[in-house]
Specification:
Blueprint (H helix, E strand, L loop, with lengths): L1 H9 L9 H7 L2 H17 L3 H15 L17 E8 L7 H10 L4 E5 L3 H8 L2 H6 L15 E4 L3 E3 L4 H6 L6 E6 L5 E7 L7 H20 L7 E6 L7 H10 L2 E2 L23 E5 L4 E7 L10 E6 L5
Parallel strand pairs: 1-2, 6-7
Antiparallel strand pairs: 1-11, 2-3, 4-5, 5-6, 7-9, 8-9, 10-11
């Protein structure tokens, strides 16, 4: 009976777009696959062949979407590289000094921050060391808690929004920057943060955010530049939103499928965590390294990744 009961959650990802509860389950497809595998092996050891077969089939079904839609890997030095740090640093982070030190010591060329606290924003505004490391940083004096920050060590400029996108007031992908790599390549970094699926209404709101994001992504194809959509995605690689971005916009998830790690909540550990902080990449951007770092006061782990751009033409 338990073996059969595993089949329903194992296949939730197939119809995760139809209901909030189904998509929540779909976001845990890898954990469901692991649980079904362990149960199947136990039943196999007890010579319960039928139960073992059903449980192992459920494990295979739940695992199916996990490796799909992932970015290609690259070896170090195959193309111009970007060290990228992505972090929801939390608006109520009481360890702002530690968070600031993590950013400054990260070695990242580009930093994308979400939900920055007032104290962290003040530390960044008033730091000569930060201005030296990231001369392209832009933190307006009027910016308050929750402001999204992009720090760049390289020349960058804002990409104007399409008129309809600006008029919609959509906050899910509010800022896009065109950045010049020292080796001559150019690329785009877009900051995205769809609404959290904490309840059915927010789930629908976040799905609308993703739809507008896809419209914006496909509308920028005429720029013909490698593009990185970085942020708190509020979906795991097996969730409906991530799968829709790979299907409808041709984007690829940066986190390698062979990396068993989560980024939220930091008070727990994988597999009791979910990987929702990441980047979606156009297919010409490849991944050299990906790792989750210590949280330093946030409920989200920062993610540092090394990305490889196509050689400059």
């Amino acid at each position: 009976m338990l073996s059969l009961a595993l089949l329903a959650p194992a296949g939730a990802w197939i119809i995760g777009d139809r209901a909030w509860a189904l998509d929540i389950v779909a976001n845990f497809a890898l954990q469901i696959a692991l649980a079904a595998l362990m149960f199947g092996l136990w039943r196999l050891a007890r010579r319960r062949w039928g139960q073992a077969a059903v449980a192992l089939a459920a494990a295979a079904l739940a695992f199916t979407p996990h490796p799909q839609g992932r970015a290609d890997r690259a070896a170090p030095g195959e193309g111009p590289e970007i060290e990228l740090l992505v972090w929801n640093s939390h608006v109520d982070n009481v360890r702002a000094a530690d968070a600031f030190r993590l950013i400054l010591d990260s070695g990242a060329d580009v930093v994308v921050l979400y939900e920055s606290s007032d104290e962290l924003l003040d530390l960044m505004r008033n730091s000569d060391a930060l201005r030296t490391r990231y001369p392209e940083s832009r933190i307006p004096t009027r910016a308050g808690a929750g402001f999204r920050v992009l720090l760049s060590a390289w020349p960058s400029r804002r990409v104007p929004r399409p008129r309809e996108e600006a008029e919609s007031g959509d906050p899910s992908h509010g800022r896009t920057w065109r950045i010049e790599h020292p080796e001559g390549a150019e690329f785009l970094v877009s900051m995205i943060h769809p609404a959290s699926p904490r309840n059915p209404a927010r789930w629908r709101e976040g799905n609308d955010d993703v739809r507008r994001l896809i419209d914006a992504a496909t509308g920028r194809l005429d720029l013909d530049l490698p593009t990185i959509y970085a942020g708190d995605l509020n979906t795991t690689p097996t969730g409906h939103r991530s799968r829709r971005m790979t299907r409808d916009a041709g984007l690829r998830r940066a986190m390698p499928w062979t990396t068993p790690a989560g980024t939220w909540p930091t008070r727990s550990f994988w597999p009791a965590q979910v990987a929702i902080d990441d980047a979606m990449l156009t297919p010409d951007v490849r991944v050299v390294r990906w790792e989750a770092l210590a949280a330093h006061g946030s409920d989200h782990h920062p993610v540092r990744m090394t990305l490889s751009l196509p050689p400059h033409r």
